[in-house]
Structures are given as C-alpha cells and as structure tokens.
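Q: What would this chain look like folded?
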Amino acid sequence: MTTIRNFCCNDLLDITPILMDQYNQRLKAVDTRNLKWYFHTLAMWSKYFLVAEAPGNRIMGFNVSKVGGEGCKKKCALTHIAPYIRYYRSADMIKMFVENVEVIADKIDKVYYMEMLVHADSNQKINLFERLGYTCYDEGDRLSLQKPFPRLTEYQAQMTSMVQQKIQQPE
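A: My prediction, written as structure tokens:
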C-alpha cells in the first residue's frame, strides 16, 4: 500500500536514484536543480512537497508544487512530479499526487486553478492529465495543462453578471 506523506530533508538522499533513473531514461524533463533549490522549496512550500512511500519505507516518487499569484490569478503549479519509473507504475502514483495537491490547494490555499507545464511531445503525460480533468493550452514548445476549481467558475459568473448589470443600467 502506498503512503503519501510530506517530504523531509533526509528524503533528499533517497530521491537521488529517482533523479538518476530519469536521467538514464533520457527524459526531457531531467532535473538539474541543486540542493539549494530543494531546501528553498521545502522551506517555502512544505505542504506541497510530497513523497510516495512503499511498504518498507522505500521511496516510490516525489512531487513538488508551488502556489503563486494574487486574486483570481492565484494558482497552484505542479512544478515537478517524479515517479521511480523503473519499479513502479507512474500513472497511478501521479494521480495520487495530483489528487492530494488539489485538495490542499483548493481547501487550504483557496487557489482558483491548477497548472502544469509539459513538453508538447509528452503525449502520455498530456493524456493522463486530460483524464484527470485538465485542459491543454498551447504555449509553443511547452503546453499548459490547467484545471479550474469551482471558485474560478463562480468568480467568472459573478464578473459576467456585474458587466451585464452595468450594460443594462441607463446613464
């Protein structure tokens, strides 16, 4: 049974094989971030830095997400999802990570939408995220996969209603 838990500093030693596995698989999303980046991210967005653990405390993968923006542009960006491809089914793990992050982002930080940038030729990842309710937007060689929360839809409906009221008011 897989357990999703918060990342801790000691986990940095355990994720090295995952990063090396991705490098050896010649993935385009090779992680070249340094230790300083991981510590900074862990300090700033600790609730969004998650790890999947198998029985026996073996790390199956990890996820890094960040929250940014103000007002209706407040979003949660899925920055890095790294499953240990060699040993575990990545689609199920990615789904678990995304679902956990969505709950935190929606209920705690009250973001308006989720976003993930992917390479245009990452068809498998694009299909997976589309099945999870994300919509694909073109941004050149990278695609933006976005999923609005009900809060954004309500905000847009409220703004539309206000505009219609302004139009209908006589001057």
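Residues 83 and 109 are 25 Å apart (CA to CA).
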